Amino acid sequence: MGKEKIKILHAVSEVVPFLATGGMGQVAGALTKSLAENYPNLDVRVVTPLYAYFRDKYEPQMQFLGNTEVRLAWRTLYCGLFEMKLDGVTFYFVDNRHYFDRENTYGYFDDGERFAFFSKAVFSAIECAGFTPDIVHTHDWQTALVPIYLKTQYYDEHKDMRTVFTMHNIEYQGKYALNALHDVFDLRLEDRGLVEYDNCINLMKGAIVCADRVTTVSPSYAGEIQISGGYGLEAIVRENAFKLRGIINGIDTKQYDPATDPMLKKKYTASSLEGKASAKRKLQTLFNLPKSPRKMMICVISRLVSHKGIDLITYIMDDLLNLDVQFLLLGTGDHDYELFFEDKTALHPNKVAASIAFNPDIAGLIYAGADVLLMPSRSEPCGLSQMIACRYGTIPIVRKTGGLGDTIRDCRGGEGNGFVFEEYTAGALFETIRHALDLYTYHPDDWKNLIGEAMSCDFGWDVSAREYLSVYEGITIR
After folding, report:
1. 130, 261, 265, 318: which has the highest count of C-beta atoms within 10 A?
2. Cβ atoms within 10 A of the Cβ of 279, count?
3. Bridge partners, residue 92, by sequence
């Protein structure tokens, strides 16, 4: 008789291929797919809200399992459940149109209530689906209440259930006024100590305390958030360091592969880079830049916010434009930054192009066609862009922080797959760009070898998925 499978339920507010507003949705989709593909001893399932964003496209492929009521403080709320299987993973979708049929995923005054409902609905989904997991794996503040509710309200029913809580970005903690304890979150006065921190409710703090294991998305970030990068939660993280583990994210290497990418007219590999040159020409045409094959194209694909290092880029921009380079930016964010890059495009149309938008197709073309990707972040839990850029032979210039330091090695120290600087200063960034430009301009064979080194890096999910498996096996009761 075969060994019984470990049953894993990921509770997450977004997941590809259905929805991803950032890295969490991409990671949740790729991780669960990798676990299902590689470990037959796991039964991997996901529960997520049924958003209007993808309802029309996917609902015809879903099976309606039934509906129940969720009690949240003084409210009695409808909760429907749909099921769909894809890539070996069973997905459950929690239906409540009042909370999830909205134009955006986040940003509403009642987000706390919306995701308190969803966290309660996870337990209703378990009952409705007839699937009782050994482990519920939750992600960021939106599902932080799941391990809290398990400890405070559902423990008698699920004594053997364990929880894992992953912090994708500790900056966003789910902070609310203390008077929301009962009316919004349906917690009792005696539960207040679990979630209270710095004179407010902090849902992430509660999850760190209540979860059986806590993970974050790179080993370096796991260290940083205990010292000075925890946005006020450093002491709580240190107190719970015995159950903390940093596991680097991966990327879907089948999706991000220039040898097979359907978006590229001409495919390429590290040994045959004509397709990369073709993508660069297409980029230059698309953004009305001069078609100069040997002019280094520097790109930025990012949210335009200061902690992404955008302040450093704006500070060096005039000096950068004195170099023989082209600069291309794709992203949205702070209005002042958007205006800055639009102005630079208007003043220097032969050297600068900025698209103040987020378009995945254009992002894919930029990864393929650019020569260099800038990621001078002040903080970066893991980062996916630097790994995607390596897959396409676009050399990352990164600051050594979080996952950037764990994935990119400085080629100036010998073997490496990019350029790394440590000081968070404009001077350090500019000097590193100068070194990259010198190598690109005067040592083309060495640059080609660097491209080969970057493209050969294994950023797939196999190693990371194995680490998550060890986390699961370490807390499963058998």
Report:
1. 261
2. 28
3. 47, 83
In the structure encoding, which two tokens stand for residue 454, read together?
Answer: 């970057």
305-325 residue pLDDT tens: 989 999 999 999 999 999 999
Between CA 38 and CA 56 the distance in angstroms is: 31
Q: What is the pTM of this model?
A: 0.93
What's the CA gap between 85 and 66, in Å, rounded? Answer: 17
For 233, other C-beta atoms within 10 Å of its C-beta total 22
Token pair, residue 219, equals 């080993």
| CA within 13 Å, CB half, 67 | 8
| Residue 131 · residue 115 · CB < 8 Å | no
Residue 230 has which token pair?
A: 């925890």
CA gap 379, 148 in Å, rounded: 28
Instruction: Specify the amino acid at residue 341.
Output: F
Using alpha carbons, select from 43, 145, 128, 144 the residue that is nearest to residue 93.
128
Per-residue pLDDT reduced to its tens digit, 456-472? 999 999 999 999 999 99
Contact 442, 16 (CB under 8 A): no
Structural tokens at position 22: 């950032």
The DSSP letter of residue 200 is: E
Predicted confidence (pLDDT) per residue in 239-288, tens digit: 999 999 999 999 989 889 999 999 999 999 999 999 999 999 999 999 99
- Round to whole Å and give the CA distance between 250 and 458: 9
Does the pLDDT of residue 1 top 50, yes or no? no
The residue type at 477:
I
Confidence of residue 478 (pLDDT cuts 50, 70, 90): low
C-alpha dist (Å) from residue 29 to 14, 120, 122, 219: 9, 22, 18, 21
Residue closest to 110 by CA, chosen among 91, 93, 128, 96: 96
pLDDT in tens, 87-98: 899 999 999 999
C-alpha angle with apex 311: 305 to 315, nearest 5 degrees?
A: 155
Average pLDDT over residues 21-40: 93
- Are β-strands 200-202 and 175-176 bridged in parallel, bridged antiparallel, or unpaired? antiparallel
The pLDDT confidence band at residue 168, using thresholds 50, 70 and 90, is very high
Supply the angle between the helices 444-455 and 426-442 in degrees, to the nearest 10. Answer: 110
Extract the runs of DSSP E, i.e. beta strands, from 116-267: 135-139, 162-167, 175-176, 196-197, 200-202, 213-216, 244-246
Residue 55 has phi, psi (to 5 degrees) of -55, -50
